[in-house]
Amino acid sequence: MAETIYDVAIIGSGPAGYTAAIRAGQWGLKTALIEKSDKLGGTCLHVGCIPTKALLFNAEIYDHVKSAKEFGIGGVGELTIDWSVVQQRKNKVITKHTKGLEFLMRKNKVQTIAGRGRLTGPASVGVHKVEVTGATDETTEMQARNVIVATGSEARMLPGLKVDDHILTNIEILSLTRVPKSLVIVGSGAVGVEFASIYKTFGVDVTILEMLPRLVPVEDEEISKELGRVYKKRGINWQVNATVEKIERTAEGVAVEYTAEGKSTRLETENVLVAVGRKPRTEDIGLERLPNIKVERSFVHVDESMQTGEPGIYAVGDIVAGYPQLAHVGAMEGIVAVAKIAGKDVRPINRSRIPGATYCEPQIGSVGLTETQARQAGHELKIAKFPFTANSKASILGQHEGFVKIVADAKYGEVLGVHIIGPSATELIAEATAALELEATAEDLAQTIHAHPTLSEAMLDASNAIFGLAINA
Fold it and tell me: Rounded distance, CA 223 to CA 418, Å?
């Protein structure tokens, strides 16, 4: 390994790292993928996106079965949850895709190297050295003309708290051996509201505490309001403007003390999920040995090709400053970085065209500017909403909550943002993302034939509503 000079070495095998490795292999680059864990895939595959969505699908099935009589299906009887089977299915999904990644590395001639990768300093004669420490602390050096750092992120913990069997992060809550009776969730971003949705479906008493003025604070304000309404209807308790003062272990679980609207409250609960964001894993990877790399609050600054201030050193994924910490963003960043290395043409990432997807019930999908952001940017706007109550496919599914909201420029009609809450919102947002990428207008969408009956017709009606011409509402 010490004598081989790779075209690119990638540190970390999450979505950003493995996508970069596959693309590098496809373009004929001699590629090494360094991973400290014994499995490829990173947080997303093992303790993030994939297992969480597997549990959410279990919850969706459970909800459907509870409504069996409405659909003319009898003989269901009293529902029970075999939590061990739920966990086994989740783990089966993870295992399948872990093996899939191993196959893709072999297919694309990517050499995988077990160990923790660290940068050693500036390049010598155009070649970087990466130190790799294995499981038994033996250290070797490898050489590469380019290095992509994709070390990912980990859950932030509240000051003074430590994870145990009752105080949880996204990792521990995914491996609970049984369904708890009660759960307090600190934070209402995607992680918080998704687990609230899962565990409420399975009969848990759920409370969300959010320090900001609304749930899912990165979303359009009307999306936040609608989610709050539906969550109250579902029996999910939530409190915004809530400052957590203390979390402590009790004989039976955890006590959470918080202040909201000038009032102090103490909640007794079996478990607490801390979901207050993620911090980049940039400690002890050698960044301090490269003074040209700018690091701010542990995030790494890059240019539009994902290159740091040090030639030949790139950063992608959750460690990158100024980009949302989303798996699909990291994957595209990996593609952009490898394109630069391989001398291929690729468009830089446009941050205003990055879709967000939150898999709570109801789902949330969004892309582009919120109404507030668009007004702050000086746009004159036309706004339209179309409710799923008026969509025939939503009626067929029995899922009527939510709406499609389009934010468009008043003068030219260009679509500036689309915000969806409701059935399959995380799938529907792809059309809106393509519309923004192609700089489409509301008129373009209104003149695009959508199949009937489909949920996507809600997008058609919302775009027509911009002109006051929605057919179904």
Answer: 11
